[in-house]
Amino acid sequence: MSIVKINVLNVPAEQREVLEQRFASRAGAVENSDGFEWFELLRPVEGTDDYLVYTRWRDEASFQAWMEGPMKAAHQGGADRPKPAATGNEVWSFEVVQQAAPKQA
Ligand code: HEM
């Protein structure tokens, strides 16, 4: 089954809006990558201040290929790159072992 890569972003409260805007303006940065299956930006509500960037991929190779190519373009802003909203990050890796979806009516 698929694999999940979650980028955990440490974002100060006053930078939340900036972060969300930056993601909103980068729509399309990952959708066309081979093996890409799902993306969600998860805003913390309780229990943590970290944002989770949830991504799901067909396999590890697809994710690695994205990381080595398109990911760099999706993340770089050139010389005038603004200061990141996030103060730090960490990547978590998972394998999907079980899943369910609602039954079709
Ligand atoms: C698991 C996969 C991902 C990894 C490992 C990753 C890596 C990173 C890292 C290290 C940062 C913080 C530092 C920086 O700004 O460069 C970041 C922020 C960001 N990433 Fe990603 N990313 C992933 C997925 C995505 C996806 C799918 C998108 C686009 C839809 C995206 C768009 C952004 C944006 C807009 C920021 C905000 C920069 C800021 O802090 O202002 N990332 N990512």
Determine the fraction of residues in helical runs and give it as a percent range.
10-25%
Give the ligands present.
protoporphyrin IX containing FE
General shape:
globular
Element order: H for helix, E for strand? EHEEHHE
**Total DSSP E strands:** 4
Give the topology, please.
Layout: E1 3-10, H1 16-24, E2 36-42, E3 50-57, H2 60-68, H3 70-75, E4 88-95
Antiparallel strand pairs: 1-3, 1-4, 2-3
Describe this structure in words.
The protein has 105 residues and is an alpha+beta fold. The chain is 23% helix and 30% strand. The chain has 3 helices and 4 strands, in the order βαββααβ. The protein has helices at residues 16-24, 60-68, 70-75; strands at 3-10, 36-42, 50-57, 88-95. The protein has a 4-stranded antiparallel sheet with strand order 2-3-1-4. The mean pLDDT is 93. Protoporphyrin IX containing FE binds next to strand 1, helix 1, strand 3, helix 3 and strand 4. Residues 5, 7, 9, 19, 22-23, 26, 29-30, 39, 53, 55, 74-75, 84-86, 89, 91 line the site of protoporphyrin IX containing FE. This is ABM domain-containing protein. It holds the Pfam family ABM. It comes from Streptomyces longispororuber.
Tags for this entry?
105 residues; alpha+beta; four-stranded antiparallel sheet; 3 helices; binds protoporphyrin IX containing FE; Heme-degrading_MO; ABM_dom; ABM domain-containing protein
